[in-house]
Amino acid sequence: MAHVTAYLIAALAGLISLIAVYARGRVVGAKLERTANNAKEAEANAKELQDVAAAGAARADADRLNADAGKLRQPDAYKRK
User: Fold this and answer.
1) What's the rounded Cα separation, in Å, for the pair 57 and 51?
2) pLDDT tens profile 21-77
3) What is the pLDDT of residue 2?
4) N or C: which end of the chain has fewer CB within 10 A?
5) pTM of this prediction?
6) How would DSSP label each residue in 6-34?
7) Per-residue model confidence (pLDDT) at position 27
């Protein structure tokens, strides 16, 4: 009977260690996923800031070109709009 108890204790210890390893793997996997998501989010934010800066520069160029186009227009002899 003493041998059976020893085997049961060893099996229970093995089961507990398997559960602990599984839980640790889940925690580490979740941490890696969060890190990857944070990196993607930071990259997306940087891209959005570049896009906003490019749009601002494009708007400034368009305003400058519109201002220059008004200077080049010949006056209308018939005063049309």
Assistant:
1) 10
2) 999 999 999 999 999 999 999 999 999 999 999 988 888 887 777 766 666 566 677
3) 73
4) C
5) 0.53
6) HHHHHHHHHHHHHHHHHHHHHHHHHHHHH
7) 94
Structure tokens at 42: 């930071």
79: left (phi over 0), alpha (psi -120 to 50) or beta: left
The torsion angles phi and psi of 76, rounded to 5 degrees, stand at -85, 125
For residues 58 and 51, give the distance between their C-alpha atoms in angstroms, rounded to a whole number: 10
What is the rounded distance in angstroms from the CA atom of residue 5 to the CA atom of residue 22?
Answer: 26
